Fold this protein.
Amino acid sequence: MPKAQPDERPTEDGRAKNGRVNDARINTAAGQPGTHQPGTAKSGVSRPSAANDVPHERWEDHALHRRPALLATPEEIAIDRAAATAKRRAFTLSTSRLSMRLRLTLWVVLINTLVIFSTELVFWLYQTSAIEQATNERRIRRSRMIAAELRPYVPDNIAQRLAGVSSELTRQFIGERFMIEVFDSSGQSLASTGPERLDAATINLHRVLASDSPFVVKLEPGAIWPRSESETPTRIVTTTMRGSDGNTYAIALAVTDSFVDDQVRYLRSVFIVLLLVGVIAAGISGWFIASIAVAPFERLRRLASNLMPDASTTSLAVDSVGGSSEVMRLAEELDLARARVRDRFAAQDRFISNVSHEIKTPIAVMLTEAQVLDRRGLPQPVERFIDSVEEEMSKLGRLVESFLTLTRIQDGKGLVRFSAYGVNDLIMDSLDDCVRMAEQHHVTIQPELLADDSTLDLAVSGEPELLRTMLNNLVRNAIRFSPNGGTVRIRAIAGTRSRNEEQSETDQSRSEHFDTVKLVIADEGPGIPPDRINLIFDRFSQASNQPMKGRGHGLGLTIALGIAEMHAGSIVAENLPKAGCRFIVSLPLRGIDPTESSDVAMTD
Amino acid sequence: MRVLIVEDNPKMAAALQAGLRENGYAADTCHTGFEGEDMGASQEYDAILLDLMLPDRDGVEVCRNLRRRCVKTPILMLTALSGVDNKVLGLDAGADDYITKPFNFEELLARLRALLRRGEASEGRTLTCDDMNLDLYSRRATRAETEVDLSNKEFALLEYLMRNPNRVLSRTQIAEHVWDMNFDPSSNVIDVYIAALRKKLDRGHPRELIHTVKNAGYRFGVMD
């Protein structure tokens, strides 16, 4: 991830060379309109999040080559999280993992289909064999009746009588083709209703004649009549009868099977419809059952996504009371995991506050002792030493304080509380803090507040303490680089995001709805060397190598930028055409940011 | 002026005591919360410097106990912790101000002076002018029975104006008294804060209280 940074730099350097105004624009993703465009989201992800991303680099290299934004704003964390979700989703799809709901549904459908299909198969086999059997019995009965009818006319008048029986049968076998053939005991055909002749072997004629028991055979379509006339198979029943002369004769009744076929086909379509209905019903019910099963997890997920590690948010187990035992167990596990995370956070907090106390106390003791010491009558070198102690101790104290602030900004906890802070009050409070230093350095601070009636009480939203630290750091930086007798100007400008140019404040009548405020801190110092303008927000990076009065510790601008980003703002540094440089802080005004509706929000 | 120092680090306590004495204060020290509560409640002090981390109990607790025992002495908290939560906790418990170690001794003195001024001024005192009321103890401003929400600086400016009613106050005077500094004549700070006060106090009221005196400054009071 951090490797994205070097790629960006050549273009910026190029711009710095041919542009009149060197411009190190360090906008956060959140500071710009349209934050949620994919491109911005990507930059949010690729932002180096902490120094330990590149453990093998030397610290100095690291500080020099890294761009300043080391700090993730809540927005960026949100973007990171969204990206992680997207990644997870992509992963899920790539390994063709289906959602639990879909999986459950598919299983229900599969099992139901198998059950329905096998049940239908059993029924099918039973039904078709029953139909076969009933038809055979019916045909045998029928051919016995025909035999009884024909008996008196065998063998002499058989042909005429057969014609009469045939026409009679036509009325009974509606929609079927049929034929009757009569054989004598030797297997010779005596008469037939049609031109077709049955094959003695096919109908097992000799066995029937010998055993005297009926025989049924089913022939494929086309065996007797051409396929074009009948598509159904033909069933042939061969029985014996005793003729008027006392001899045994055989009679074969061949009838097409349309009726049986229809019945079987009907049965089949019923079964298919049943199967389809069953599968669809299984699908729908499976989906709903799966929804019921998955719902508690979904609810749990929603609860968990709003969860903060601090104790103020309620426990999952309490919130999901009424869920099934599995869900309860999961919720309890999650609560335990959360408690462990919370303990870690608390331990870290304790550690930081202990360290801060342990380090700051001796510094405070020494500083106070040096400051209250009665110096009357002390030799010159001792007095110089005390001055030096005082100076170094207060410097060390500021450094420790800055480190703690930096830790706070960087540990990803975000803003703990939001409150309104008047822009003018912010400037004046910062002035209170910095005026002593300005006097020491013979620098005048000249504030220019929001003066218009509509902008008088515009306020930003955030932690006043941090915002004040941010402005203090920028003002102190400006004082440090100002020449003797110079002026540091602090100017507040209300504006809208669409109009970035500072002209917007001159014609305020045109835009009554401001959504950002710019704080411009300008000095009359030497400006920022063009080759360093991109680096000034880095830790321990000093814009000039010459010793400056009251040289800072190199963390002030990093902290200022971090705080601005925490408040969804940005800081831009640029050199002024004549002399000096200016830092422009952009912060969203209160009432613009949707996250500020509650006073305590966003602990991430 | 008598100040009580409750600080467990003996060197720190001694240094503070020496520094305060040099600046004309009488200072007593004690090293535990128990002693601090006892001394703070039983003797008359003008201010208490209270360390947040004490061996036997939390400074916040000491502060709360003192307030519970109706000790109204202004309390200035000293601490090495700089978290916002701690500050809020301390102020909620009844402390009046808060200073983070390591501090500049000059700053400590300045804050102490401010506290003492406030303590002195706020002994049940209310500034009144027409229907404008300023309660210095609870730091609340009301105009015609309606509470007006003021920032610290606005409050300080209004207090200065109300302490000098019907007098023309120049911008320089205001800057020196309210901000303790001088602004460049081209700076709009005073005008902006006067405008903010006007917006909050005078808008919608028939009688204006803040008047501009051309080329001179401002005057507070009802116009005859």
Q: What stands out?
A: The CA atoms of residues 126 and 135 of chain B lie 5 Å apart. The first strand of chain B starts at residue 2 and ends at 6. Chain B touches chain A at residues 9, 11-12, 15-16, 18-19, 22, 53, 80-85, 87, 100-106, 151-153, 179, 181, 183-184, 186-189, 191-193, 195-196, 199 (CB under 8 Å).
